[in-house]
Specification:
The complex is a heterotrimer of chains A (254), B (311) and C (286). By secondary structure, chain B is mainly α. Helices cover 71% and strands 0% of the residues of chain B. Chain B is globular. The chains are: A alpha/beta (254), B mainly alpha (311), C mainly alpha (286). The interface between A and B is large, with 49 and 40 residues.
């Protein structure tokens, strides 16, 4: 168990009268890899959007813990939350269409001191500083055309993940990261996640429909349905829980 | 020789070069960062009028007046952008257009300050070397424009350029990577607008007497047409576009090939008629412009090959 | 003048003067509601309508009221043509909303300077026989102008009723809200769009004619209106015809009030400042 990272209190969101997220109390980040599962429409993506403030919650409070103190991030802008160390990947593919793969990573790795409008000569220094790291990732995941753009949907998803990883986040929220990835990349991905959470102190929350993956990789699992977190615990317990079995494992992949 | 160098020919070339600078600035704002600024000519005109007022009414010498005008323009631009830049793209366009209308209206109505349509001036050249004065001043402006083009070129393949591209492509995604996109846009817009103000101040002696029409919507739209025609995403798009429009109509047709004055009106209308047609055709059939889009490659920064790591 | 008088004359004159504007705003909003973009070329519907009417009336010699009909109809046709030849193909090619605005500027230039090439740059005035002059709260007005204003108001409200109270109007709104769904329900998007663009052009043309009756007809007629039309449409919550009507009236009243107190130029400035303020306020609230 680790120090908790996120604490949600009374977080609620409704769309047109329908309650989409309703969480009286939730603590996240106590384990290296945590899974979030649930049927479609349960509110998982909405929850992540609320935490990263892509969506405004109707009421409630979200506390983020670094170095012992809890900061209320409910009103902070998206970019500030990312700078505080909480980053998310996207379920629907997001990319920068003019940027190549290396461009994307150079963008992500560039710290503010490189990016002022007058820093037109800082490219060389940036590349020298980060090129090793970029090459490591490009080699590890074997992109088809590392000098060019991400071609397939799978590559774009991977790029999304790597962009987030190079930021060295403290908390990484991943929304269906393996959906669309070929099996060999999925295995590389899992191995990398294990390494990072074990050695670098990162905490991960994965939203997934691939239950085998969840049971295999998570240390703690949350089950969400109809906007509420109904069950939480170690994977073996959650897996056998009656509500989960009836509400969810009947449908979806197992 | 002296006649050519001090005549109308040099006047038109100087204006042409100023427009190239403005179109390049528009590229930086719209083509690179995605800010649809329909008020660029008002910002430029503001710099021009500010400089002229400082010189004519307060007797401030030329160089300090230019510097002051540039700074003032930057400040005003920061004010506008703080208000407008966090709105969506269409609102930015309409908001900057509204700003243009406000400035133009005020310049015309506040005659006590600007002399309205009677003209403000005279703004004289800062030095006098006889027949070669205008030519030398033209060279000075040309050098500044070349420096601007160099800056734009370097910017594109540098970290800030990449950041601006990311803002244009997908601002929320850029924010989710921790980039303070609003603040960056604000500063960059203020900086580039200050540059526009600078070129405005520098243009004042070329015109000698300033009229509100120099900053009106016609100029803004001409610049936009030039940029879209040239290639909005290419640094030299502005240059190509301005040469193809203003260069063709105002320099070649009116200066080098003189048009009898009875056709002046028809030429004027035909010019804008063709501009409109060009804009329609380009946006429908070749939206990326004459120069098209450039593929970004690993060598964009030309900083040497990246070494592949072993193991 | 007392404050009460000021208020009364401001409101009444403001409403009267803004009748063509309200009509223009409604026509403009129709397109935004349906197709989702700001069409600056709409200005030229007004200009062309006015030119056609004035040609029939002052040059050829027809009666004013008769000239209005073919002129307005042709404005509608022109509007449909710009839709079919330029805007619809552009949308199909995936041109984004900002670029569509720029494209519409191109259409505006094309039409406006085309008009200049055909008609030249002189001013035209309508030739209206048998007018009576009134003074109305210190403002001189002819019976023709009053009738035009009346027309403008009637048509504006007529369009409003059409959009919200008829089946066709309902169809249009359905199409505007969700094209795919509407097509599944059997609605033909092209047919409905053509009707909308025709009505929009009609409204614009009439608005241009009525404006020309008050001042004169020249190539800048539509262009001078377009900025204010834009403001009205956006203030009135673009896409809401009701809002356009209210905002149009509001704009007319405010401009009149400011003009009475200071100069006409400040009226425009006040308007623009209010406009930007509303944009911001709305965004913050959303």
């Amino acid at each position: 168990m680790r120090e908790k990272k996120l604490h949600l209190k009374n977080v609620m969101k409704s769309f047109g009268g329908r309650k989409v997220v309703d969480i009286p109390e939730l603590t996240l980040g106590t384990h290296g890899i945590e899974g979030l599962i649930g049927p479609n429409g349960a509110g998982k993506t909405t929850l992540i959007n609320l935490i990263t403030h892509k969506l405004k919650m109707d009421c409630g409070q979200i506390l983020y813990y670094t170095n012992g103190d809890g900061i209320d991030i409910s009103k902070k802008p998206i970019d500030e939350i990312a700078r505080l160390g909480m980053v998310r990947t996207n379920q629907i593919i997001q990319d920068f269409q003019s940027l190549t793969i290396r461009d994307s990573l150079l963008l992500s790795l560039a710290t503010p001191m490189y990016e002022n409008f007058y820093n037109i000569f800082s490219e060389r220094k940036l590349r020298k500083t980060v090129e090793q790291e970029i090459e490591r990732y490009l080699d590890y995941f074997r992109f088809e055309n590392p000098d060019g753009h991400a071609l397939s949907a799978g590559e774009k998803k991977l790029l999304d993940i790597i962009r987030c990883l190079v930021l060295k986040p403290k908390v990484l929220l991943m929304d269906e990261p393996t959906c669309g990835l070929p099996q060999d990349q999925i295995e590389l991905f899992i191995a990398l996640m294990r390494k990072k959470t074990a050695e670098e102190g990162m905490t991960m929350l994965i939203v997934e429909h691939d239950l085998d993956l969840i049971w295999g990789v998570s240390e703690n699992v949350y089950f969400m349905a109809e906007g509420e977190i109904l069950i939480q615990g170690p994977p073996d317990e959650v897996r056998k829980n009656e509500t989960v079995v009836t509400k969810y494992m009947g449908e979806g992949s197992a | 020789m002296g006649q050519i160098l001090s005549g109308y020919y040099i006047y038109m070339l100087s204006i042409l070069v100023v427009y190239i600078a403005l179109a390049t600035i528009l590229h930086a704002q719209f083509g690179l960062t995605g800010i649809a600024n329909f008020g660029l000519s008002a910002i430029w005109g503001f710099g021009m009028y500010a400089c002229a007022l400082l010189i004519v009414k307060l007797n401030i010498p030329f160089v300090p007046a230019v510097i002051l005008a540039t700074i003032l323009t930057g400040v005003i631009s920061m004010g506008i952008s703080r208000i407008i830049l966090d709105l969506d793209s269409q609102s930015v366009l309409v908001g900057t257009l509204a700003f243009l209308a406000i400035i133009e209206t005020l310049v015309i109505s506040e005659k006590w300050l600007t002399n309205g349509v009677m003209g403000l001036g005279p703004v004289n050249y800062p030095f006098d070397i006889g027949t070669y004065t205008k030519f030398v001043y033209f060279l000075i402006i040309l050098i500044f424009t070349i420096v601007l083009l160099f800056y734009a070129r370097k910017l594109e393949s540098s970290p800030p350029g990449r950041l601006f591209l990311s803002i244009q492509d997908n601002e929320p995604l850029s924010q989710s990577l921790g980039k303070s996109t609003f603040r960056r846009k604000l500063v960059f817009f203020a900086f580039t607008s200050a540059l526009a103000g600078f070129f405005g101040a520098m243009a004042a002696p070329i015109y000698k007497y300033l009229f509100p029409k120099y900053m009106g919507p016609a100029i803004t739209f001409t610049l936009w047409i030039a940029l879209i025609l040239g290639a909005r995403k290419r640094i030299f798009g502005g240059l190509v576009g301005v040469v193809a429009t203003i260069g063709l109509f105002d320099v070649v047709l009116e200066t080098v090939v003189p048009i009898p004055s009875k056709y002046a009106g028809i030429l004027y209308n035909t010019k804008y008629f063709l501009y409109g047609l060009t804009l329609i055709l380009v946006l429908m059939f070749r939206p990326s412009g004459i120069l098209g889009e450039k593929a970004r490659s690993i060598n964009t920064a030309n900083t040497g090959k990246i070494q592949k790591m072993e193991g | 003048m007392t404050f009460a008088m000021f208020l009364k004359s401001t409101i009444i004159i403001g409403l009267l003067e803004s009748a063509p504007l309200m009509l223009a705003a409604v026509g403009f909003t129709l397109i935004f509601r349906l197709n989702g973009f700001i069409n600056i070329g709409y200005a030229e519907n007004a200009t062309l309508g006015a030119y056609l009417a004035v040609t029939l009336n002052a040059i050829i010699g027809w009666n004013f009221y008769i000239s209005i009909i073919p002129a307005a109809l042709f404005s509608g046709v022109l509007s449909v043509l710009t839709y079919l030849i330029v805007f619809r193909p552009a949308m199909k090619r995936g041109v984004g909303p900002t670029e569509m605005i720029i494209l519409s500027v191109g259409v505006s230039f094309f039409l406006r300077y085309g008009i200049s090439l055909i008609w030249g740059s002189r001013l035209y005035n309508f030739d209206i026989a048998k007018t009576h002059y009134f003074t109305f709260y210190g403002m001189g007005i002819t019976s023709t102008q009053l009738i035009c204003l009346g027309f403008a108001l009637i048509i504006a409200f007529g369009l409003y009723a059409f959009i919200y109270k008829t089946k066709m109007g309902e169809t249009m709104r359905a199409l505007a809200d969700n094209e795919e769904l509407a097509m599944i329900a059997g609605i033909n998007p092209i047919k409905v769009s053509v009707v909308v663009w025709f009505l929009s052009g009609l409204a614009g043309g009439l608005a241009g004619i009525f404006t020309g009756v008050f001042t004169w007809v020249n190539t800048g007629l539509g262009w001078h209106m377009i900025l204010v039309i834009l403001l009205v449409a956006i203030i009135g919550r673009v896409g809401d015809v009701r809002g356009a009507l209210i905002a149009g009236a509001g704009v007319g009243i405010i401009t009149t009030a400011v003009t009475l107190v200071t100069q006409p130029a400040y009226g425009v400035v006040a308007l623009l400042v209010i406009f930007i303020a509303i944009l911001k306020f709305r965004k913050v609230r959303a």
